[in-house]
What we know:
The structure holds two protein chains of two kinds.
Chain A: H1 5-20, H2 27-34, H3 38-44, H4 48-68, H5 78-95, H6 97-107, H7 120-137, H8 151-168, H9 175-192, H10 196-211
Chain B: H1 11-38, H2 44-62, H3 64-75, H4 82-89, H5 100-111, H6 115-118, E1 121-122, E2 128-129, E3 133-140, E4 143-150, H7 154-173, H8 177-194, H9 197-211, E5 217-218, E6 231-235, H10 242-247, H11 252-273, E7 275-276, E8 285-287, E9 293-295, E10 302-303, H12 306-314, H13 324-333, H14 343-360, E11 368-370, H15 374-389, H16 391-396, H17 403-422, E12 425-427, H18 432-438
Parallel strand pairs in B: 5-9
Antiparallel strand pairs in B: 1-3, 2-3, 3-4, 4-6, 7-10, 8-9, 11-12
Amino acid sequence: MKTDSSTQIIQAFNSYLLENGKPPASIHQFCVSLKKKETEFYAHFSSFDSLKSEWLLREFNDVKAAIQGDEAFESYGAREKYMAFLYAWVEQAVRSRSLWLLIHPDLKSPWMHSQLFSRLKPAFKSFAQGICREGTDNSEVMQRPFLSDHYPDVMWVQFLFIHQFWIKDDSTEFEKTDSAIEKSVHLVFDLMGNSAFDSAMDFGKFMLGQFR
Amino acid sequence: MKYQDKIATSRLKRTLKFIGTGAKVGGNYLKHYAKKSLNPELSVEKLHEENAEDIYNTLSNLKGSALKVAQMLSMDRTVLPKAYADKFTMAQYQAPPLSAPLVKQTFKKILGKNPSEIFDSFDLNACNAASIGQVHKAMKDGKTLAVKVQYPGVAESIRTDLKLVKPIALRMFNISEKELRVYMEEVEEKLLEETDYSLELQRSSAISKACAHLPNLIFAEYFPEWSGSRILTMEWLHGRHLDEFLKSNPSQENRNLAGQALWEFYSYQMHTLKAVHADPHPGNFLFQEDGKVAVLDFGCIKEIPPDFYNNYFALILPGIHSDEKKITRIMENLEMILPGDSEQTRQTILKMFTKMMQLLAKPFSEESFNFGDDAYLNSIYVLGEEIAKNPIIRRAGDGRGSRHMLYINRTYFGLYNLLHLLNAKVKTGIRKEWLEAIGE
């Protein structure tokens, strides 16, 4: 099978990282070892960070395609779809755990690294948006003024949380990560759904009104 | 079945849940006394019923260990007011399920495949929840299968859970700390063993084989190729749970058949295998229309050491209860009487427990025994209560008697209770091979 040149470059970069434990010193050096022209690299990526961000996006797309290819997926509600995604994400990540651990230092303060997530984040959020829309249709998710626009942001933060949790997880077969996914998704969807949250808000607004 | 929206997550949250129940139970007592001041006729039974409801709701949300403690305590009906016991018996049948994606994920991890790749069909919705896992129905080559899937991380949460159950159990069940500790240790040991499905597979297959020749008992076939550390696949067994079976109004003949099958099952375990494999808990059996009994669940094995066996079963021999010397020796061997006891304590314990053992051994002294007789079971309750309330025995402290004794007594009591519910007449007389085993 012939792989296109951007895929080749990503694979070469990842193997370099795995074998040397650190990224190549420069793009020049990397391209020499690849026997490619630097211009070919720049045709796809502007830097190693943009290469990594493309890899993240591709991982995401693979996972998305995998869960959507599963016949049971369509029968799931929004909550289960999102869970299925997270389980599949971790399953995929386990295959390249060494790589993830090497990249991990870059991910330590994820929200600071906009460059690294520049491709993954919008893709994830549009996926999350889709799930929320479905959830709204079958009333798993409540529409709320202002707040509902930020549901995908909440899910993004939770997604990063799960990923970090998995990186640090030392339980056999990452059992704890499974529990973390199950429990945190329930929490997030309970909050987004019809819950005590609305009553609390309502009561809060009422009480605020009393003190004015 | 209600889908579980929230699984109690952190230790804090679980603690809060228990406190919540404690408060609610306290509230029920207040309500009870308030009502009682208006209506002195109000029974304590009613209060127990309300409490049981609240405790049950909390426990079933917590799942795992807490559920197991409830089951254990529900077996020991002498400890529990009746309402608690009834409510807890339900614990075996229902607990909220885990999500479909997690079930699939567990399959991929343990067996490397999706359930749909392994089976011709697989129902992602659990049809039954056990204490540490849930059961799914699957089809393969025209066979119906039951697939047990374990909750992730169960083994780890067991200790924390049990610590949390302790204070509330102390208050709720009104038993001493020492007595409760015996339960707790046992539950912990059992639970940790039960989390290992590979071990369960091995043992279940072995015991099924060993007991296969017993009449009117049905054991499942196990499938090691579709089982692993957290997944256990076996043949789907047909039948009804005890309460549904009884509702279907089975004939006396079939009640007796089922009762006899259970009696043979436990006798064989006690006297031949010298190991007890399953709690005589109603949830562990399915009853079929023709009186056959399917055995669902084998917990961990309780071995009966030969020394204990000889002493304990000597107590069922005819005429033993008039031989005071021998009884005293046996009670000493069983650690019911301790060397440091005063003469008064000694005499009281001897008297009470001889009475208890005599009562428990009563079915053995007759060719056949009618367990449907309310008076018999009731007399055990009454004597149990009397022993529990006796000031001298109370002062002597609990935790007497070896743990084997506690376990075997409970097994027999559980069995009698099952047979009582079945209203069965069973051939119970002592058999020659038992006498040989006991060494008389």
